[in-house]
Amino acid sequence: MKLMQKLTILFLLISLLAGIYPGVITAADITGREIMEKVYNRTEGDSRQSRLKMVLINKFGDERIREIEQYEKSFGQIEKKIMFFISPQDVRGTSFMNWSYVDKRSDDQWIYLPALRKVKRISAENRSDNFMGSDFTYDDLGDRNLNEDKHQLLREEELKGEECYVIKSVPVEEDYIYSRTVTWVIKDKWIGLKKEFYDREGKLLKVLENKEYKEVDGILTIFNSEMHNVQSDHRTRIQLSNVSYNIDVTEDMFTERMMKRGL
Amino acid sequence: MVQRITEFVLKKPLLVMMILLLITGFFTYFIVEKARIETNLDKYMPEDHPAFKKSNYYEDVFNIDDAIIVAVSNKEGIYNQHTLQKINDITEEIQKLKGINPADVRSITTADNITGSDFGLEVEPFMKGIPETENEIKNLRKKVDDNEMIRGRFISTDNQSALIMAELKDDSIDRMALYNRVKEVLKGKEGPEEIYVAGQPVVEGTLASLMPRDMKKMVPIVILVIVIVLMLTFGNLKSTLLTLGVVLFSTIWAFGLMSFLGIPVYSVSTMIPVMLIALGVADGIHLLSHLQQRIRNEPELGQKEAIKDMVDQLWKPVVMTSVTTAVGFISLLTSEVFPIKYFGLFTAFGVMAAMVFSLFFIPAGLQILNLPANRKRKASKQGNFFYNLADLVTGHKRVIFVISVIIVILSLVGLQRVGIDSSLLSKFARDEEIIQANNFINEHFAGTTNLNVIIEADQDNELKNPEYLETVQKLQDELKVMPGVGDTFAVTDFLRRINKVMNENDEQYNRIPGSRELVAQYLLLYSMSGDPEELNRVIDYNYRRLNLRVNLKSDNARLIRKTIEKIDEFAAASNIADFKIDYAGSAYTNMVFTDLILIGQVKSLVISLIGVVILLGLLFRSTVAGILGSLPIAITAVINFGVMGILNISLNTTTALISSIVVGMGIDYSIHLLSKYRRYGQLGLDKMETARKTMNQSGRAIAFNALVVISGFLVLLFSSFPPNRELGWLVSLSMFNSFLLTLTLVVALIDKYQPDFIFGKRGKLNN
Predict the structure, then answer these.
(1) Vertex B65: Cα angle to B59 and B66 (nearest 5)
(2) Is residue B518 within 8 angstroms of chain A, CB to CB?
(3) How far is B654 from chain A (nearest CA, A)?
(4) A109: which DSSP letter?
(5) Does any CB of chain B come closer than 8 Å to the CB of residue A129?
(6) In this predicted complex, what is the ipTM?
(7) Which listed residue, of A190, B21, B478, B596, carries a Cα 20 to 30 Å from B423's Cα?
(8) For residues B123 and B67, is the Cβ–Cβ distance under 8 A?
(9) How crowded is the C-beta side of B379, counted as CA atoms within 13 Å?
(10) Element (H or E) spanning B288, and its range?
(11) Is B497 on the interface with A (CB under 8 A)?
(12) CATH of the domain at A152
């Protein structure tokens, strides 16, 4: 009887510890933060060109399809990106440029409307705004700084045949649009396979799935992903093609002049 | 069979009483435990009706949700720190309420301003925090004045009031609970600002909560009045209490069954108690007055014998009148609207329950309590009155016919003028809080009633075409000058605004962009810089359908219909003639809904009239009897609608109930009169004596019954809902007409034509 009690207490203690320090039991050698750091620092090349197909699907199954040719390049403290709309036909030639800064400064954005023949700046006040009516916020698309969340390794498990770490990230900021996110990171590849976003009230809001990834020029690249807002049943599919890294572009590519000139 | 049952009832009266009370207790339990009041009007509508299906679909596509509207008003103007702070507080607190999506609460403190500058296009909140300095406040005011998407919509043009609109998360929200939560938020926030709350959910919530409260006030008064009338009729407490027990228990049964079956109490169901109390006493009066007369005539009769005789003699007419009254209400099952169906069903059930109580509860009660004291009565004056009435009627047949025809013609003229009203707001008295709030908001803002116009092109992407958008803009311009229309809102408003700010705020660009590409690019631009959800409210994914919102100052069906006519007319003569135009939103569905109810009522009136003809025809084995008996009912109905037309009383969901009451009660009078007439006719009396005896017997019974029903329904005059008051006196008038017509017109016709079913079998005595 005494032995049983002791065992029970021991068991309870272990469970308690496991609850507080899940890392202790599952994988003592790596923490949630370290995993996310590896994901954050995974090499992505300093420049990239790709064809982006963005499909917005509402709950009725109606689709809005946009095809975009995009160039991205990192210039030290500034990440620059320029996008040219290929289709639909009536927005062809519209271009969009985004400069994001490593420091806290908010992004600069420009848009060129060929029908107006003018380049206009647009305000990008809020990183929680959705990008082009998609289910991705600017934050979801970009790399959220590691220090903005507290990361915790929940467990390790297999998902779609891949060994994954499951990491819970809770934003430091109190009133952020998500109360937490849960990410499945593929072991040794340091790429996300799935991510769940929970709203302020703690209810599941969105699920991001990495549906296809492969190596291009030695860099793991997600080719096909889908964000599903489970509350509004709206989906955004992002498909990449013709991806090439370390392309030969200069700062001249990321100018208003290029926006007007188009491809 | 009936004799054996009565025998049993009299042998074990306590057992019978216990069983009845047990069932009543069982039903009471269900009422207490499970009764639920339905406050969401959408639940009243038949979901599979094409108009509602379509509207629901569009509400889904464009996120059209009913909104609670709060107006904050300050005579000194809203542009001061205190008032702005208050608007901000209310907005934030409402955002936190259950049933509200924070993103769907709009006010000046959350609204985005689309502006252009040298910098480019900006979509930014009007306010970031409460402006403090004079300069900041001035700045805000300028921003509002410059943006016609906000001015007049969220800030009144006189700068004295601001609106906060909170859309409901989904349809299933309990309106009343939410309204109470909003009131909780607003508590203590008044002064110096005045605060008003309106909007469809508030109207529905208030209606759903006031109706039962009104009935709670009404029922005791009805009971009191009925008790007084019964006391005057019977002259003793026992009979009064027994009859009262019948109606109260049958009401409990009706609501108990409703709760047991999990059917919520709809606002129209709150009329059931008054109906059952007024209608259910008929059987009791019938039985007990017979009994009292009998023991007066034969005081030596034993208690059991007297009771047995009462049931023996009267079970047939009691069953018959109950069944026919129930059938009148059952005819409401033809309605497509569930609350009306249920109203008909449960009132019918209540009437049948009253019949069961009358046949079991009254005898058992009498057996337990013993017979009422034999009250000596002086030679009744009424007897003389009805005797004389017979002479009067038969002596002035021509006058009666002529007057009847004149009244019918006048009524038919008035009947043409009867208007239909679906307005929920018109159901409230003018001094009701909701009406005051509604009037205030309609006076200072665009209008609390929204009509959503869905314009669908013949193929995708067509609505990016400026030619069509121009047409929509023109339609908006024409609608805006229509009386009763406050404002309109569509994708065109976004496009004009963006076009203007992208062209250096030049007012001449405040128009639809000139090319399809520019439209597409502006929409893309807005979706990149603003809130794309806003666009989803006005245009669909395939740019094939747009949602044009029209703000109306009243939810009156006539205005809605006129607006729809105007739109259809305009569209037919324009380049969007081939496009499909549909309507959605609660103002529209309420209108369709009311139409459905009224069509249902008319249908059930016609069906039940035909039913009455057939029923009476079968009962008396004579077509003439069928026609004669239903004539007073038909004329009563015609007069009722004629009076409504002449006095400009609209046909609405409440007043439309009159027809079923008229039929249900009227048929009892006919059965009464015709069966007595036939009885005396077959006795071989001469025609004058037959008329006199009939009049004396059934005339008095009908008069009593009419008196009771009229006094019951007149109590509705104390209701706080104008339509209930109208129902009260209209039913009373109809019952009076029904009574009068039965005793004059029908008697005169019988006297003139001496139909076979009364006088034909002369000499062959039966019974």
Answers:
(1) 130
(2) yes
(3) 39
(4) E
(5) yes
(6) 0.83
(7) B478
(8) no
(9) 2
(10) helix B272-297
(11) no
(12) 2.50.20.10
**The architecture CATH gives domain B446-584:** 2-Layer Sandwich (3.30)
Which residue of chain B has the CA closest to A94?
Answer: B521
Q: How far is A252 from chain B (nearest CA, A)?
A: 21
Q: Average pLDDT for consecutive 10-residue bins of chain B (767 residues)? A: 81 88 90 79 76 88 88 90 90 88 86 76 81 87 86 88 88 81 88 89 82 82 88 86 91 92 83 84 83 82 86 85 84 80 91 91 87 60 72 89 94 86 78 88 88 93 93 94 92 92 87 93 83 85 93 87 93 91 87 80 83 86 91 93 89 77 84 86 83 84 85 87 87 93 92 83 43
pLDDT at A22: 46
| Answer CATH for B1-40+209-377 from 1.20.1640.10, 3.40.190.10, 1.10.443.10, 1.10.1040.10 | 1.20.1640.10
Q: What is the CA radius of gyration of chain B?
A: 32
Using a CB-CB cut-off of 8 Å, the residues of chain B touching A118 are: 502
Asked if A120's CB is within 8 angstroms of B541's CB, the reply is: no
Under DSSP, the state recorded for B378 is P
Contact yes or no for B518 and A113 at CB 8 A: yes
- How close B255 comes to chain A (CA, Å)? 39
Q: Which residue of B has its CA nearest to A138?
A: B528
CB distance B529–A122 less than 8 Å? yes
What whole-number distance in Å separates Cα of residue A190 and Cα of residue A213?
12
Tokens of B12: 């074990």
pLDDT score recorded for residue A115:
92
Of A73, A48, A68, A41, the residue nearest A56 (C-alpha): A68
Please spell the DSSP secondary structure of A228-248, one letter per residue: EETTTTEEEEEEEEEEEES--
A65 touching B (Cβ < 8 Å): no
Task: Return the bridge partners of A87, or none.
Answer: A67
The helix-helix angle for B586-619 and B623-646 (nearest 10°) equals: 150
Q: Does B531 touch chain A (CB under 8 A)?
A: yes
Count the residues in chain B: 767
Query: Does any CB of chain B come closer than 8 Å to the CB of residue A117?
Result: no
- Partners of A231 on chain B (C-beta within 8 Å) are none
